[in-house]
Amino acid sequence: MRRYTALKPSRGTTWPEDEARAIKYRDGSCVGRRLGFGPTECYGYPLDIDHVRASHGMGMKSESTRQNGVLLCGAHHRYKTEHGREVRPLLVAYLEGVYR
Asked: Is residue 67 one of the residues assigned to a domain?
């Protein structure tokens, strides 16, 4: 299997420092491994903070908050980008479980 590099952050995507710190502390590592994204192998690092919920509008950014972000390695970030319909519900359930 080919090892993917981390996706480049989209232009304009910024994470407030306190939110980024909270996400990194909460997740600690790639959540793709824990949630069973497959068949992609997890490479662990580098880690990206990725938005879970979409903005629902062209050119709009979704919220950059801890309730809408997770840590993903480059391979799982790419997998989420390519298989969003099957993966996003797993990520939403993970976040809902954390913030109940």
From this structure: no
Does 94 fall in a domain? yes
Instruction: Please state the domain count of the chain.
Output: 1
Q: Which domain covers residue 47, as residue numbers?
A: 17-57+74-98
Q: What value does the mean pLDDT take over residues 56-64?
A: 70
- The mean per-residue pLDDT over the stretch 53-60 comes to 67
Judge whether 67 and 99 are in contact, CB under 8 Å.
yes
* Distance spanning both ends of the chain, measured CA to CA: 37
pLDDT(83) > 70: yes
Strand duo 47-51 + 69-73: pairing: antiparallel
Compute the distance between CA of residue 8 and CA of residue 23 in angstroms, rounded to an integer: 19
CA distance linking residue 92 with residue 59, whole number of Å:
22
Quick one: angle between helices 74-82 and 84-98, nearest 10? 120
Write down the pLDDT at residue 51: 92
